Amino acid sequence: MAKQDDGFDLANSIFFDITRKILSLELEPGALLSEKDLCDQYSASRTPVKTALNRLSDQGFINMKSYRQTTVRKINADEVLQLMYARVAIESRIIEDFLKKDTPLLFEDVAHVIRRQEIVISQPSVDPLEFHELDLAFHSTWYKAENKTRLLTLFSKNTDYVRLKILDYKRVQEYDVILREHKAIQECISSKDSSQLKKIMHLHIYDHIAGLIDSMKKEKDYFL
Description:
Blueprint: H1 10-23, E1 32-33, H2 35-42, H3 46-58, E2 62-63, E3 70-72, H4 77-99, H5 104-121, H6 128-145, H7 149-156, H8 159-172, H9 175-191, H10 194-217
Antiparallel strand pairs: 1-3, 2-3
């Protein structure tokens, strides 16, 4: 049942709960959403459920068609790949500018996020959304330092990208791999090695997602 905490009304609670389920892939791409079932699930009338669904549709989470069942929108793989291609180039340049700052406290911010990631993945059960937020916190260090946070938001808030990242976590649980790559990035920052950094960034940001898409297209009907 949806909770009505922090002053949110029932429609907002339903919206945020379904959003969380879509991003975490508890509701998979292409999954059917029955308005009646949602009313039963959230002990709600049709009005707040319809309001939540309309908002989900407006934000691109679901597809709603008259007289047909509502479905979770499938993933636009090509759009994500193009976005990540651009991110590699832009983020590599941002880190190069970041390397010019001789600010030990900023470098310590990077190390601090890595330590938090180590703690999270040491737990028996890892929350993929929690780890994803720490991943964003790691990358946000140089975006914030260079006053380029709008670019990070453009990349990281793409719904399809978030779902692919969570799918990667769920499919192979490669938290250790990601953590090793974060440490490699940290080492490049510490040594100010921009040439090696570009190779790691391409692997870390683009190659993982491209490989995941190729393999998942053979296994799941998740893509447009």
